[in-house]
Specification:
Elements: E1 5-10, E2 16-17, E3 33-38, E4 70-71, H1 76-82, E5 86-87, E6 91-96, H2 102-115, E7 120-124, H3 129-138, E8 147-150, H4 154-162, E9 169-173, H5 190-207, E10 210-216, H6 228-232, E11 235-240, E12 247-255, E13 263-269, E14 272-275, H7 279-283, E15 294-301, E16 304-316, E17 325-328, H8 332-346, E18 353-359, H9 370-383, E19 391-393, E20 396-397, E21 403-404, H10 409-418, E22 423-426, E23 436-439, H11 443-450
Parallel strand pairs: 6-10, 6-11, 7-8, 7-9, 9-10, 17-18, 19-22, 22-23
Antiparallel strand pairs: 1-2, 1-3, 4-5, 11-12, 12-13, 13-14, 15-16, 16-18, 20-21
Helix pairs in contact: 8-9, 9-11
Bound molecules: thymidine-5'-diphosphate and magnesium ion.
Thymidine-5'-diphosphate binds at residues 96, 98-104, 135, 138-139, 268, 270-272.
């Protein structure tokens, strides 16, 4: 019988070597190699996986379903992003830039649940308990019976929580500050983050506690630590926004217990995060007199329409200098495409003009239905003729200059009507309800309409 051979397997990428090294030669991670015995030859009798296992019962898709119990946080926008509330025994990772408001949101949720009589534990590895208490007081939540501690040792945390009834919710702020003494290395390293998360998640699953881990985000926008952290948890939420703007969006990136297309919208105020149940009101800037170059676009966020203002500015250049194109809140490639279609199919010339496009309120659009609204803003800016202020515009533009219908047309129009809009510039085939529709089959028809040639 062959002697079992020692080998070292990288816990990040799975590559194996026969010699221990500090850094994995394949993926470049540090301190991820751990010793494993290649037992295959030792247990050659059990080499055949086709026998010797336990057989299990298999069920149909129509078998009874045990829905996981959910716990609403009472913050409706948070619950919406979670798909209806926190699930007992599940793990949620919430990532976001420093200072975006992760700790604030979780403290508010923790306090609300504690006030509703739940047992809540909030462990901060970043701030001293006094700092957290001060913040709670500032938020008007000083009397909420949240169990608070400042700790970083996972062993201490699990020992403490292991005594008595487990909490309904455990918040760990943040996973990068946690430390497991089973593993060498400083907090925040790949192996520490993974080992700490593993133990905390095991506790949550065994004891039926809903676990929320705060995760820092690196410059490129991914959650620091191994990608594997995202695989270990049930739900990944991203908390986004511009720090210079008030609004914050909580977006589900992964959710084993719900959809990933719903968002929660908040605004950061003096008293913490306020829920924004009508986001359109937040993104529509004050709309008074008609202004050339501005259109309103009803975007879809999940199943919810959000009205945003798109602004275009076209500046004619006298000299032959290369004109600038600058975009905030939209895809610059998409803008180039709309400009090209306007030039090639509609005879409008932007080639000697600088073009600036801005989505008001710091909002970022990814909905292709914005094409037509962007085109209308550009035409209006070029011709210096305003688009009627009581109108909304949406539709997808193809390279041929055709205007294609988009999803959720009726829902977009309904939201626009609710906010007082009376006209819609859209693709053909929609029912307007309270909104008077002008339908366009091609971009050329929209140009004629906006220039008063139809
Ligand atoms: P915080 O929750 O500490 O962010 P994170 O945990 O994601 O790093 O939020 C910090 C920012 O929020 C801070 O810059 C101040 C601001 N803030 C308010 O504007 N109002 C408030 O009531 C609170 C608590 C914070
Ligand atoms: Mg924080």
């Amino acid at each position: 019988m062959a002697k079992p051979q020692k080998r070292y397997v990288c816990q990040a990428c799975g590559s194996a070597t026969t010699k221990w090294q500090g850094q994995c030669v394949d993926c470049g991670e540090w301190n991820t190699l751990s010793e494993e015995l290649s037992n295959v030859t030792v247990f050659s009798a059990r080499h055949d996986l086709r026998t010797g296992g336990r057989s299990f019962e298999m069920l149909g898709l129509d078998a009874d379903i045990a829905l996981p119990p959910r716990m609403a946080t009472g913050i409706a926008e948070f619950d919406r992003a979670l798909g209806g509330g926190l699930v007992a025994g599940s793990a949620t990772l919430i990532g976001g830039d420093p200072g975006i408001g992760k700790s604030t949101l979780l403290l508010q949720a923790a306090a609300k649940l504690a006030l509703a009589g739940r047992e809540i534990a909030y462990i901060s590895g970043e701030e001293a308990t006094d700092q957290v208490r001060l913040r709670a007081r500032r938020l008007g939540l000083g009397m909420a019976p949240v169990k608070l501690a400042s700790a970083t040792s996972v062993r201490d945390i699990l020992t403490t929580l292991g005594q008595g009834a487990p909490p309904a919710l455990l918040v760990i702020d943040s996973i990068q500050t946690m430390h497991s003494d089973l593993i060498e290395g400083a907090p925040g390293t790949v192996s520490q983050v993974r080992a700490s998360a593993h133990e905390l998640i095991r506790f949550a699953k065994e004891r039926g506690t809903a676990l929320i881990l705060v995760g820092h985000v690196t410059k490129d926008g991914s959650i620091a630590g191994p990608r594997v952290l995202e695989h270990m948890v049930d739900t990944v939420l991203a908390f986004e926004g511009e720090r210079s703007h008030q609004y914050r969006i909580l977006r589900a990136i992964k959710n084993r217990f719900g959809g990933t297309d719903e968002i929660g919208v908040f605004s950061m105020a003096e008293q913490g995060l306020d829920e924004v149940s009508n986001p359109s009101a937040l993104f529509l800037t004050h709309r008074g007199d008609e202004m050339a170059g501005a259109t309103v676009f009803p975007a879809m966020e999940g199943t919810r329409p959000v009205l945003v203002e798109i602004q275009a500015l076209v500046v004619r250049l006298a000299s032959g200098a290369t004109p600038r194109r600058a975009v905030v809140g939209w895809d610059s490639g998409r803008l180039a495409m709309i400009l090209a279609v306007l030039e090639a199919r509609c005879g409008l010339s932007f080639s000697t003009a600088e073009v600036y496009l801005n989505v008001a309120g710091g909002y970022r659009l990814s909905d292709p239905a914005a094409d037509l609204a962007v085109a209308a803003a550009l035409i209006s800016a070029l011709a210096e003729r305003p688009v009627p202020a009581d109108s909304v515009t949406f539709g997808e533009v193809s390279l041929s200059g055709e205007i294609r219908p988009v999803a959720h047309g009726a829902l977009r129009l309904k939201e626009a009507a609710k906010l007082g809009f009376r006209r819609g510039l859209v693709s053909p085939g929609l029912e307007g309800g309270d909104i008077r529709l002008s339908a366009f089959g091609t971009l050329g028809a929209l140009v004629d309409h906006l220039l008063g040639r139809d």
